[in-house]
Design a protein that fits this description.
This is Extracellular solute-binding protein. This protein is an alpha/beta fold and about 325 residues long. It contains 14 helices and 9 strands.
C-alpha cells in the first residue's frame, strides 16, 4: 500500500470522527441567567447520559455565522431568533421529534425556536418608602406619589409603558403605537414625566440598582433582578405584575450542527414541564411549557412572569422590526432635547 493511499484513507476517516467527537455544545448568552439555565437544563440533561458542555456567546446575529463549528444549540432572544431563522442560520424545528408544539405556550413556539424561559419588565418600588401597590398610572401621578421615576433609556418598552400609564389596555398598545396619533400620545405622556425620570440601561445599571441606591422611588425593572434582590430579606421591593412586559428567550438548533440528534434530544428534554418548573426557584424566571406552573410554591409563583401574566403585554417583535428605526430616531431626539 502506497503512502499516498494510506494518507487518503486517514483523511477520509479523520473528518467524520472529529465531527462526532465533539460533545453537544449549548451556547448561552453572556450576561444572561447563565447559572440558572445551567442548573435548570444543562446539569439535569447531563444526568440523562448525553455529554453536554456550555459556552457563552455575545448577543446579536453576527456570532451565529459559521456557528456550527463551535455550537449546536443556542439561546436566542426573539428578535435574533426571527432574523436567524429568516437567514437560515438555525434549523426549522421538527416539532414532532421534540415533544410537540402543543406542550409549549403559543407565544414561545415558533418555526425555529422552542421557548426556554419568559422574562419580564415590571413596575417595582421600595415598599419601605411607599407601602401601597402602585400601577403604571400611579407611576405618572407625581402629586399623589412624589419621587423620582426610573425608566430604561430605550423606546422599546418605554413607549409601551407610557401608553399603559395613560390608561391604554395592553391589547390596544401596539395598535395605537402603529399610528402617528398613538406615537404622539406616548411621547406626550413622557413629556409630563420628563423632569422626574432617572434613566437606566441594560449594561449594568438596571432599575433594581436604582432602587437599591435610593435614586428613585419606583421604576421599570427586570422582574428577575427585583426578585433576586429581595431574596434573603435584603430588600423589600414590590412587583406589580399588571401591565408587565413579557419577552421570550428560546432554544434553537444551529444549521449544520454535527450533533443534530443530540440537539433534538436536548430540546425534547427542555420542553418537559417538570424540567421547566425549576425556573422560578432557581432563576426567578417564567416557564413556558404548559403545566409547569402546577405544584409551584406560593413563593415560586410570586416571582414567575408566566404565572402572573393575566394582565400582561407580550412584547410584539414584529412591531419593533417594522417600527424600531422610526421610533428609535424619534426617541433619541426626544431624550437629547
Amino acid at each position: 500500500m502506497t503512502r499516498a493511499l494510506i494518507a487518503a484513507i486517514l483523511i477520509a476517516f479523520a473528518a467524520p470522527v472529529h465531527a462526532e467527537a465533539r460533545d453537544l455544545t449549548v451556547a448561552l448568552v453572556a450576561g444572561g441567567p447563565v447559572q440558572g439555565l445551567r442548573q435548570t437544563y444543562i446539569l439535569p440533561f447531563l444526568a440523562t447520559g448525553t455529554p453536554v458542555v456550555t459556552a457563552t456567546r455575545q448577543p446579536g446575529l453576527e456570532t451565529l455565522r459559521d456557528a456550527a463549528a463551535r455550537w449546536d444549540v443556542v439561546q436566542l432572544g426573539a428578535a435574533t431568533l426571527a432574523a436567524a431563522c429568516q437567514a437560515g442560520l438555525v434549523e426549522k424545528l421538527d416539532w414532532g421529534a421534540i415533544g410537540g408544539r402543543d406542550r409549549i405556550l403559543p407565544q414561545a413556539a415558533t418555526e425555529c425556536g422552542q421557548g426556554a424561559f419568559a422574562r419580564a419588565t415590571v413596575l417595582s418600588w421600595d415598599r419601605e418608602k411607599f407601602p401601597g401597590t402602585p400601577t403604571w398610572q400611579d407611576f405618572w401621578d407625581i402629586a399623589k406619589v412624589p419621587g423620582k421615576r426610573g425608566l430604561r433609556r430605550s423606546p422599546r418598552g418605554t413607549l409601551e409603558i407610557a401608553l399603559l400609564g395613560d390608561g391604554v389596555a395592553p391589547n390596544d398598545v401596539y395598535r395605537l403605537l402603529r399610528t402617528e396619533e398613538g406615537s404622539d400620545r406616548a411621547f406626550r405622556r413622557l413629556d409630563q414625566l420628563a423632569p422626574y425620570i432617572v434613566w437606566w440601561d441594560a449594561a449594568g445599571r438596571d432599575g433594581a440598582r436604582l432602587l437599591t441606591a435610593g435614586e428613585v422611588l419606583m421604576t421599570s425593572a427586570p422582574s428577575q433582578a427585583i426578585a433576586l434582590a429581595n431574596r434573603g430579606g435584603a430588600h423589600s421591593f414590590g412587583l406589580q405584575w399588571a401591565g408587565e412586559l413579557v419577552e421570550i428567550e428560546s432554544w434553537a438548533i444551529v444549521k449544520g450542527s454535527p450533533n443534530h440528534e443530540a440537539a433534538r434530544r436536548f430540546l425534547d428534554f427542555a420542553g418537559d414541564p417538570k424540567v421547566q418548573a425549576r425556573l422560578p426557584a432557581v432563576a426567578a424566571l417564567g416557564a413556558v411549557a404548559k403545566g409547569a406552573q402546577e405544584g409551584l410554591s406560593p413563593e415560586q409563583s410570586a416571582v414567575s412572569p408566566t404565572v402572573n401574566s393575566g394582565a400582561a403585554l407580550f412584547v410584539d417583535e414584529a412591531f419593533w422590526r417594522e417600527n424600531g428605526e422610526r421610533l428609535g430616531k424619534r426617541f433619541d431626539t426626544w431624550v437629547s432635547r
